[in-house]
Amino acid sequence: MIIVTGATGFIGSCLISRLNQENFNAIIAVDDFSREDKLANLEGKRILERVDREEFFDWLDDNYHEIEFLFHIGARTDTTEFDRSIFEHLNVEYSKKIWQKCIDYQIPLVYASSAATYGLGELGYDDNESLIPQLKPLNPYGDSKNEFDKWVLEQEKHPFFWAGLKFFNVYGPNEYHKNRMASVIYHAFCQINQKGSMKLFRSHHPNFADGEQMRDFIYVKDVVEVCVFLMHHRRNSGIYNLGSGKARTFLDLANNTFLAMGITPQIEFIDTPEDIRDKYQYYTQASMSKLRSIGYTQPFQSLETGIEDYVKNYLIPGNTL
């Protein structure tokens, strides 16, 4: 059996699809299944059992001897949520319990961290673990992910294999339920589909022209390929960046979305809201040398190919992965 937490969510459901492709069909899907708006993400997938996240640890105590691997993808990811108790429960304490169970039962573990831990990137975007205690995230979500990363590095006992993945700007099918937290590509498609045009934030930084703000966008299909690689690899435990390794502009993103939809670009620039203006990231780019150094050789899809696949094969026809 393979456990996937956050199973109905964006990345978790795409990971289950990828595991099914390799004929891993004894999937234990862990999540809060009361969110009916996400259940479509599990349609057509081969899953052995669904376990509510609050009942999961009791279930694991009874079934640990059958577990081959655990992917802890589930988390509260809303960067606009400021109730720290929610993140403390779901992102920190819950993750600590999973870590301890993986030690007790010798289960290898991959868990989701986030590039939100890097804050404004004052120290760069290098996944050198010695820098993690110095990072300054910009919101409670980023804090919660960094707190768990720091806690992991302080532990004397570890699962026999573990990896934390700092996801950068992930986009792709199955994210429709994320509302404001969905990728800019998803929002661009929806705006263009409704109005034939889209809005981007104006730059308020002297070093960046409007639309030239840059982010490291990574297609979800690349994310799950790395997860499967680590499941098979099971060596070189540690915390790793997971981006494409190449920063691209929001204009690149917008123009490629228009192109994939067959529509002439019409872009309007609007002021970045004042409540997030001082915390706005103008540049992110993952250093990917650490993951490459342990033998991951597959190329990451370009923004062009990722957007084309996402728009033409999922967004336009309304498909899930």
From TrEMBL:
One of the GO BP terms on file: ADP-L-glycero-beta-D-manno-heptose biosynthetic process
Keyword terms of this UniProt record: Carbohydrate metabolism, Isomerase, NADP
Catalytic activity, EC: 5.1.3.20
Residues the record lists as binding NADP(+): F10, I11, D31, D32, K38, R53, I73, G74, A75, R76, T77, K145, V170, K178
Extent of the signal sequence: none
Cofactor detail note: Binds 1 NADP(+) per subunit.
Needed cofactors: NADP(+)
Reaction equations catalysed: ADP-D-glycero-beta-D-manno-heptose = ADP-L-glycero-beta-D-manno-heptose
Location of the active site: Y141 (proton acceptor), K178 (proton acceptor)
Single GO MF annotation: NADP binding
InterPro entries with a match to the protein in the record: Epimerase_deHydtase, Heptose_epim, NAD(P)-bd_dom_sf
Pathway(s) the chain acts in: Nucleotide-sugar biosynthesis; ADP-L-glycero-beta-D-manno-heptose biosynthesis; ADP-L-glycero-beta-D-manno-heptose from D-glycero-beta-D-manno-heptose 7-phosphate: step 4/4
Residues holding substrate: N169, R180, H187, F201, R202, S203, H204, R215, Y280
Domain NAD-dependent epimerase/dehydratase: 2-243
One Pfam family of this chain: Epimerase
Function as written in the Swiss-Prot or TrEMBL entry: Catalyzes the interconversion between ADP-D-glycero-beta-D-manno-heptose and ADP-L-glycero-beta-D-manno-heptose via an epimerization at carbon 6 of the heptose.
Recorded domain comment: Contains a large N-terminal NADP-binding domain, and a smaller C-terminal substrate-binding domain.
Assembly information from the UniProt record: Homopentamer.
Family in the record: Belongs to the NAD(P)-dependent epimerase/dehydratase family. HldD subfamily.
Protein name, entry field: ADP-L-glycero-D-manno-heptose-6-epimerase
Native species: Larkinella knui
Gene that produces this protein: rfaD
